[in-house]
Fold this sequence. Notes:
The chain is of the alpha+beta class. It is built from two helices and nine strands, in the order H-H-E-E-E-E-E-E-E-E-E.
Amino acid sequence: MPSGKQRGFTLIELMVVLVIIGIASAAVGLSLKPDPLQLLRKDAERLAQLLQVAQAEARADGRPITWQATAKGFAFSRRAPSGNGVDDLRGDALLRPRAWETPGLQVRIEPGQRLILNAEWITPPLRLVLSDGRHSLGVERSAAGQLRVVEQP
């Protein structure tokens, strides 16, 4: 014959345990650092997309667009519509200056030192090598102007 006392956990006890597990999981998740290769890949893919946009803009507008990189970020610029001065495209939603997400990113342009996107439909092949010191990824442009992210040895 069963006694009047039941065994088990109450709903409140189970909820308290679940809340503690959730808080512990969140603390562990927030303490993890992002994968450096993932940040580098994100920068490379974003750069490939924006270079594609800049190339299309240069073809539509007829004015060449120059891309320049620093350790902190990159920017696009072109000759102002009046012909006097330079438009740094700060007001452009897509081609505005941007910061790298990868800390200490280094960029190498092969071949040459400057990257100029012009109205030509056939362009010389180009490779940008992005490196964080440990990992390297390339952004390659084919003669047809297609850009893709590739692993670097």
